[in-house]
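Encode chain A's predicted structure.
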Amino acid sequence: NWSGLTRLGPVVEGLRDRLVIFRDERQRELFDLPDAPRPGPETPAPARFLPEYDNLLLGHQDRTRVMDVDQATPLFPGNGAALGSVLLDGRFAGGWRIERAGRGGPEAILRVELSAAPSGADRRELIDEGARLLAFVAGAAGRRDVVISISA
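Encoded structure for chain A:
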């Protein structure tokens, strides 16, 4: 959807015999590589922090695999789309941003705002994944914290 590319049907047809074909719950064809890893259907998706304007949420016309039909695409008006998106078990659950304090950024706080309270396991997973994110983007910070809040 985001690229504006059209007429890809013939391209996919030319690759059909080299792909594995599945059907989703709406009977649409889904294509994958034969040797690609595929976890079982009951495998929970890990918590993920997506960047602003991530293709998963913005690049698809049908976003129902990650968000509810009546849920607006998370551009977070008023914040200039400065928040990333949080996925819990593969579904959109809220937004995140990193705040830096102190001269030279000795402190980095990952603020996670969720639309509903997470389970204890999801909360722990968010904190662990958030700590890895902070280590990656703010490794030099003297203090790194993950703060989770629930929006009203």
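The two ends are 32 Å apart (CA to CA).
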